[in-house]
Design goal:
Oligomer: single chain
Largest sheet: 2 strands, antiparallel
Membrane topology: Multi-pass membrane protein
Distance between the termini: 42 Å
Keywords: Cell membrane, Lipid biosynthesis, Lipid metabolism, Membrane, Nucleotidyltransferase, Phospholipid biosynthesis, Phospholipid metabolism, Transferase, Transmembrane, Transmembrane helix
Number of strands: 2
Number of domains: 1
Order of helices and strands: HHHHHHHHEEHHH
Protein name: Phosphatidate cytidylyltransferase
Radius of gyration: 19 Å
Structural class: mainly alpha
Number of helices: 11
GO biological process, one term: CDP-diacylglycerol biosynthetic process
Strand order of the largest sheet: 1-2
Subcellular location: Cell membrane
Length: 272
């Protein structure tokens, strides 16, 4: 527990600094997280599948460099995804003696699971007022993690999905949602008192984001647990003592980030 807290105290200021800075510094930070996360995922599957590492890393870097154009131009996103898949399949064809279709599948999946999903942290920060609402990603995911942990160890009796995560309980899951929603609503009230945003019901937006985001974050956590079970590993990495790897710490953020992004994109007037 002590190691876990120390790691969090080191990582949290870095997270805050890069998110506050936004722009290029945040883009670089997200790219680094994506590359490390891809490495961890590919390594997890390396026991029986050979993901095409360098094509995956290359796609991640190209995507992050041109992310604004790729995301905000539908045709470019389609072209990028198609070319990425074609390049992987060409590699498999020309190296068929050592590579197979599953190698291509894991490489393609890895890019979208790690890089595409986590990139929504940067995309959310790029919104008008994104400097305010990007924090909802972390409040709903990390808030849920903390709430679920302490509620679970205090009141937990009924196992949630013991086949995937033996320690998670129904009580912990509910407590995580309640804590995350509470944090997000309090944040919304404070923001509304300090800076009223035209066309945005801040408290309602924060409530919806906390509710939906915290539920989705737990699905992200369980999905990562399912992959670890399948590959026979305990943690994706060791880069964060007490937490594991980047994917172990950001597994809930991976699904929460696009959730917050699309809530903002479709339900508010703060999108670009």
């Amino acid at each position: 527990m002590k190691t876990r807290v120390i790691s969090a105290l080191v990582a949290l200021p870095l997270l805050i600094i890069f998110v506050v800075l936004g722009g290029l510094p945040l883009k670089i930070a997200v790219t680094v997280i994506a590359i490390i996360g891809l490495y961890e995922l590919f390594k997890a599957f390396c026991g029986f599948i050979k993901p095409v590492h360098y094509i995956g890393y290359g796609a991640a870097i190209i995507y992050m460099i041109f992310i604004e154009k790729i995301i905000y131009t539908a045709s470019l996103f389609n072209v990028f995804a198609a070319l990425f898949l074609v390049v992987i399949l060409i590699y498999v064809v020309f190296t068929h003696e050592s590579a197979n279709t599953m190698d291509a599948v894991v490489t393609f999946f890895g890019f979208f699971y790690v890089c595409f999903l986590v990139s929504h942290v940067y995309l959310t920060r790029q919104f008008i007022h994104g400097n305010i609402f990007v924090w909802l990603i972390f409040m709903s995911s990390f808030g849920c993690d903390v709430g679920a942990y302490f509620t679970g160890i205090t009141f937990g009796k009924h196992k949630l999905v013991p086949e995937l995560s033996p320690k998670k309980t129904v009580e912990g899951a509910i407590g995580g949602v309640v804590v995350a929603v509470g944090i997000c609503v309090i944040y919304g009230v404070v923001i509304e008192m300090m800076n009223e945003l035209a066309g945005v019901d801040t408290v309602l937006l924060c409530f919806l984001t906390g509710l939906i985001g915290s539920i989705i974050s737990q699905i992200g956590d369980l999905a990562a647990s399912a992959m670890k079970r399948y590959t026979g590993i305990k943690d994706f990495g060791k880069i964060m003592p007490g937490h594991g790897g980047v994917l172990d710490r950001f597994d809930s953020v991976l699904l929460t980030a696009p959730t917050v992004y699309y809530i903002m994109f479709y339900l508010t007037k703060v999108n670009l």
